[in-house]
Every structure is written in structure tokens, then in C-alpha cells.
Amino acid sequence: MIDEIKALEAEALKLEPGEAQYGIWLNAIHEYTQQYLRETDTGKAWKGNHDSTKGLLDFKIQENARGLDELLEIIRKHVDNSGINAASGGHLAYIPGGGVYPTALGDFIAAVTNHYAGVFFGGPGAVRMENMLIRWLCDLMAYPTTALGNLTSGGSIANLIAITTARDAKGIKSTKVPQSVIYLTAQAHHSIQKAIRIAGLNECQLSYIPLDEHFRMDAQKLEAAIIADKAKGLNPFLIVGSAGTTDTGAIDPMDKMADIAEQQDLWFHVDAAYGGFFIMVDEIKAAYKGIERSDSLTIDPHKSLFLAYGTGAVLIKNVKALQDTHYYAAPYMQDTKDEVAEISPADLSPELTKHFRGMRMWLPLQLFGTKPFEAALEEKLMLCRYFYEAVQKIGFEVGPYPDLSVAIYRYVPEVAEANAFNEKLIKAVLADGRVFLSSTTIDGVFWIRLAVLSFRSHLKIIDTCLKVLEEKVGDLLEGMD
Ligand SMILES: *Cc1c(COP(=O)(O)O)cnc(C)c1O
């Protein structure tokens, strides 16, 4: 048996090739990533090219090793050369972020050390770091010390955790579901409806409150709807607001919604996945008034804190409610109960073993300090306002003045149907690729969006964007003559 073990050990030892090899790999990856960033600087924000990824399938997972150089070449050819370049400052579609470099370094440290971030007993440093970051987020939002939360993989899971917590805190057992009402707007992110369904609340009544002319929830109508529903014997229990909608960046009137939630005794959840970190910009802090009165909140560091994809956060004002929904004990976990100086992430989310996400957030914040983040956020706000003025000068109609860093606009030609024209326009912008834009439809109107949120988006790319739009409108109008 010993001989057999030794033979297996000799093969298994290949999993630890050692320091010299690691140095060589790191250098190669440094070269490759720097080249990627250099090309990002000058290359396209939208590459399309979906078929270029098919070649990946030729490199099957196999018994024998391949060299790193060959693998980087495969990645270059079959992964990097397609779709969105989400690292590019020209990514002005959906909700970008960019991915500040130290996110990667933090992930590297987290993976090499493999610190256990699920339970305090096993990873007291990792858990303290994550809870410290959550408390920093709570401070930003002026949440009290009774609040805590969880670093999630993104905003969708954060919304799910908040909604399941609200469900249990408000005692929505299965028999109560059909009479229970959730209030939101048509501008709520679809991850809310998804969370409602996953949380077993699909048979709740969803009450879509009308929007005002800024695409914000009309608070008066919210109050009227709740009162009317109560009179009908229904059970209103949850209001979902947005601090920065995905479509237009609108911030709902949170202070008024908090009043209503308080008076009518509903759970108030705010989805600030996109807009959350703009609260750091003094000039627009006032728009967030009332967010501190919410019961739960979603905020995405991989959006307005510019981290690479993979980090969202949920904050819950009464941590006990969060724990009641997510805590579970098991006999094989019995040794972990003695060390409880910090609440463990595993007791506050569906996850047990998880990525040590704190490190990828802590490292950039510590390395840079918060000042450049604040400046970048204010810069994005101003770039959006600059675009909003400039795009009108080149003949576009615009939506409401942007609350944050998203603007909607469209070209209304004299001789063609506007929706069809703008659909063609966005296709022409994508085919060009210098900037990446996306569109939306609100009340039957097709709008093109600009979302300035990559930390790499600066004045120059906004000017390029305006130039591309002007050029493409010219081409399309010419084609119609
Ligand atoms: C992006 C977004 C989400 C979903 O977050 P993910 O991190 O993509 O899962 C939820 N709400 C809003 C307002 C968003 O912009």
C-alpha cells in the first residue's frame, strides 16, 4: 500500500510546482494582463464577434497538462476578442464599473491564502474584515449599530436576501401569501421580481405604483394604494424603492416612502445596487435623504465602487431579522460555537463556504483611500450632465435631467418613425464599436441610454461617444434620401 500511495503522491505533487514556477506564471500573467489593458486603451468597447469563442471547445479538458503560454493564447483568441470589453472606459451601456486593478490583487491574496470567510471560528481575520466593510457601508448609509449585512456575489443575491428576510420578519407564511401585497414600480430592477419568485412570493399581489415625470415612484399614489388595499382586507407588507434605477438613474422619493412605510407598518427595502455609492458625493447627498430609514438596502461595490464583477452587498437594519432567516446549526459545526466575537457571514446568507470577497474590496479602499473614489463618482455625474447638454446640441431629444450618471435620449427624424430609427442607430453604434451603448423602452418609447460609471470613462470618451452618435445619425439620414 505504501508504494501505491507514494506513486500517487508523485503525480499529486504536480499540483504544487513551487515558488520558481509560480514566479514564471505570475510574470506571464502580468505581461498578458498589461497587454490587455494597453489594447483596451485604444481598442473597441464592443467587439461582438461571438463566433470567435467557438474555438474554445477544441481544447477539451484532458488528462495531460498544457503550458501557460498556450493557454493565454487560447484566452486571447477565444475569450478576449468578443462581446463587451467591460474593462473599457467606452463601456457606457447597462451599468458598467470597470474593475479597479487591486480587486484582482485582493482576489489573488484571497485565493492563495484560501482564508475561510464563512465562520468566525475558522477565519476570524477574514470575517472581521468583511464585517468591518459592512459596517463601513452601514456608516455611509447612516444605518445604526444594530445593522449588519453580507457581502454577496452581486446585487441580485443581495435583493434576494433582503426579500426573504422581509418575508419572514413580516410573518408571510404560505397561507398568507395570496393576500399579501408588495409595492414597487415598473422601473424596479428585474432581480426584484426574480427574488420575489425564488422567495416563494410569486402569488403575492404586486402593486405597480405609477411614476412621476422623472420616472420616480409617486409617493402619494403609493400611500393611496396601501390604504385602499388595507380597506379591502389585503395585507400590504413590503415597499421596494430604488436609489438609482437601471433605466434612467432615477432616485425614488425615499424620505416620503419611509414615512409611509413607518405609518403603515411595512418593510421598506431600497435597491441602491447602482446608485448607492453616489451618496459619497456631497453635492447630491440630499437626494438620498430617507435611505437611512429603510429596513434593508442593496448596494453593489462592483458597480459604483468600480470593483471587478463579483461583489454586491446587502445591509439589514435589524441584524436579528437577517439571522432569523439565515441561521442554521448542524452537529458537524459544533466546534465553531465558542468563538463568537463577530457574527459569521454563514449565519447571514445562504452560503457556507464562500469566496473571501472582503479582501478584493478592502485592498483597493485601503490602497487608494476613499478620496479618488469620491472624485471619480463626481466626475461621472458631471460627465453625464455634460453629455446631456451636448447631445441636445447635436439634435437629440432627451429624457428627464439625470439624477445620477444615466441619461436617456433619442433622435427624432422628420421623415422616419422614431423607434425604428433609434433601433437602427444603436445597431450602427455597436457595429462601430468605439463605444458601447444600450437601449431601453419606456411606455412604448425606444430610448438610447448612456451610463457613465466605469472608472476609466473620462471626458475624451464622452466626446468620442457624441462624435459616433452624430456620425451615425448622419449616415442613417443620408441612407434614407
Ligand atoms: C445591476 C442591478 C441589480 C442586479 O445586480 P447584479 O449585481 O447584476 O446581480 C439590481 N438592481 C439594480 C438597480 C441594478 O442596477
Mean pLDDT across all residues, rounded? 97
Give the helix proportion (percent range). Answer: 40-55%
The ligands found in this model are: pyridoxal-5'-phosphate
Q: Figure out the total of helices.
A: 15
CATH fold label of the largest domain: Aspartate Aminotransferase, domain 2
Assigned CATH architecture of the largest domain: 3-Layer(aba) Sandwich
The figure for the number of domains is 2
Total strand segments: 13
Superfamily at the CATH H level of the largest domain? Type I PLP-dependent aspartate aminotransferase-like (Major domain)
Strand order of the largest sheet: 3-9-8-7-6-4-5
List segments where confidence is low: pLDDT < 50 over at least 5 consecutive residues: none
What spatial form do the alpha-carbon principal axes imply? Answer: globular
What structural class results from the helix and strand content?
A: alpha/beta
Task: Give the biggest beta sheet.
Answer: 7 strands, mixed
Strand percentage lies at: 5-15%
Give the SSE order as H and E letters.
HHEHEHHEHEHEHEHEEHEHHHEEHEEH
| Distance N to C terminus | 84 Å
